[in-house]
Amino acid sequence: MKISVVIPVYQGGRTIGKLADELAVHLKTHLSEVVLINDGSTDNSHEECLKIFKKYPGIVKYIMLAKNFGEHNAVLAGLNHVNGDYTVIIDDDFQNPPEEIEKLVSKAIEDNLDVVYSYYEKKYHSFFRNLGSRFNDFVASYLLNKKKSIYLSSFKCMNRFIVGEVIKYKGPFPYIDGLILRSTKNIGTVLVRHAKRADGKSGYTIRKLVRLWMNMFVNFSVYPLRMSTLLGILFSILGIFLTVFFIIDKILHPETPVGVTAILTSILTFAGVQLLMLGLIGEYLGRLFLTNNQTPAYVIRQMLGHAKEKE
Question: Whole-model pTM?
Answer without folding.
Answer: 0.81
